[in-house]
């Protein structure tokens, strides 16, 4: 079946820079969410290409996801790839292999569409206590998306942008030492703030809107910082979704993780061992954003890009009619 028949569950696959994810969603609750740390974007910032071993890891996971999707008999499927594939010279080759493995087309999603879908997912289901404008923040492995607007029925942001800074990219570019040296951390935060200065100039709707907006954070860096702050021995999405992460708590988690060697960092409750190598890079971006715009707290959500796409799959329109900027693999 296709997106024209939205009844029943739908599936969304995201081939991200650091993780490959699957959501099977029937419109009720958080749905079935699977995530595998596959590191597709490792080395792309410096080398400009996806590595063969990274592609292999993603294809293995896509084969697993294909079996799950077929067993669930979902009514519609959409699969996307994001920052690492946008940057890589061999991105088109990856899309072809991924499409064959998954048994359906894997599309390359541009940054602005990624931000807009993230806004739609993150703001869905917010109650009256969270009414008013929102700035949705998605710190990925290779890029960071920001989208500003007032949540409405069609969940479209007033402005959205994607910046080439992410947990994997920042780790590889700035954090060479174990643990990172203070000078490395300072450089990572300073360069992030320069990007935010650019947003203030080039996207004044976002820059001017931040003081009155609630920061809503999604994706691996922010949910992991929340999990570490809570001290979750076993990750629980129900506890993460709706958690309020204060700036003081984010700074405290950052100081803890940034001053530990990787061998010690992995023992923090709430930190997945495969995310430990890049979490400090993501934290640098998070604290830079909270410092730059003097944001005191962040509402953490499990709902994100996947949910935004899933909601669209359950509507009569095709995704390409409403999102714009998605490029299919040829």
Briefly say what this structure is.
With 330 residues, this protein is of the alpha/beta class. Helix content is 45%, strand content 18%.
Describe this structure as you would to a colleague.
Helix content is 45%, strand content 18%. It has 330 residues and is of the alpha/beta class. The strands form 2 sheets. Strands 3-2-1-4-5-12 form a 6-stranded mixed β-sheet, with helices on both faces. The relative contact order is 0.17.
**End-to-end CA span:** 21 Å
Encode the helix/strand succession as letters: EEEHHEHHEHEEEHHHEHHEHHHEHHE
Rg, Å, rounded: 18 Å
Q: Count of DSSP E strands?
A: 12
Mean pLDDT: 89
| Strand order in the sheet with the most strands | 3-2-1-4-5-12
The best one-word shape is globular
Key phrases:
330 residues, 6-stranded mixed β-sheet, 15 helices, globular, disordered N terminus, disordered C terminus
Secondary structure layout plus pairing:
Elements: E1 10-15, E2 19-25, E3 32-37, H1 44-47, H2 52-72, E4 76-81, H3 83-87, H4 91-102, E5 106-109, H5 111-123, E6 134-139, E7 144-149, E8 159-163, H6 167-174, H7 182-202, H8 204-209, E9 214-218, H9 220-230, H10 237-240, E10 244-246, H11 247-258, H12 262-265, H13 279-292, E11 297-300, H14 305-313, H15 319-322, E12 326-327
Parallel strand pairs: 1-4, 4-5, 6-9, 9-11
Antiparallel strand pairs: 1-2, 2-3, 5-12, 6-7, 7-8, 10-11
Helix pairs in contact: 2-4, 5-14, 6-13, 7-13, 9-11, 9-13, 11-13
């Amino acid at each position: 079946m296709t997106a024209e028949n939205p009844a029943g569950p739908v599936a969304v696959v995201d081939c991200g820079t650091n993780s490959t994810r699957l959501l099977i969603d029937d419109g009720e609750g958080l749905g079935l969410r699977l995530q595998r740390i596959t590191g597709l974007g490792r080395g792309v910032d410096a080398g400009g290409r996806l590595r063969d071993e990274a592609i292999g890891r993603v294809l293995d996971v896509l084969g697993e996801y294909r079996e799950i999707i077929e067993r669930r008999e979902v009514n519609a499927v959409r699969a996307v790839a994001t920052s690492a594939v946008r940057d890589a010279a061999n991105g088109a080759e990856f899309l072809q292999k991924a499409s064959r493995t998954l048994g359906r087309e894997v599309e390359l999603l541009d940054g602005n569409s990624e931000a807009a879908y993230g806004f739609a997912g993150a703001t869905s289901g917010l109650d009256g206590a969270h009414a008013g404008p929102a700035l949705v923040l998605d710190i990925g492995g290779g890029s960071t998306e920001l989208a500003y607007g007032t949540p409405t029925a069609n969940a479209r942001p007033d402005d959205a942008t994607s910046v080439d800074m992410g947990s994997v990219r920042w780790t590889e570019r700035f954090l060479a030492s174990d643990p990172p040296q203070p000078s490395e951390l300072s450089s990572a935060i300073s360069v992030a703030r320069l990007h935010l200065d650019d947003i203030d100039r080039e996207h004044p709707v976002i820059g001017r809107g931040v003081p009155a907006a609630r920061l809503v954070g999604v994706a691996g860096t922010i949910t992991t910082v929340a999990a570490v702050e809570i001290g979750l021995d076993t990750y629980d999405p129900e506890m993460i979704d709706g958690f309020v992460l204060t700036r003081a708590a984010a700074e405290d988690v950052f100081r803890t993780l940034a001053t530990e060697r990787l061998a010690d960092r992995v023992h923090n409750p709430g930190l997945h061992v495969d995310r430990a190598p890049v979490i400090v890079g993501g934290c640098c971006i998070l604290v830079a954003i909270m410092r730059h715009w003097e944001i005191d707290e962040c509402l953490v959500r499990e709902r994100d890009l996947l949910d935004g796409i899933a909601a669209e799959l359950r509507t009569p329109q095709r995704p390409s009619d409403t999102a714009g900027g998605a490029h299919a693999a040829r």
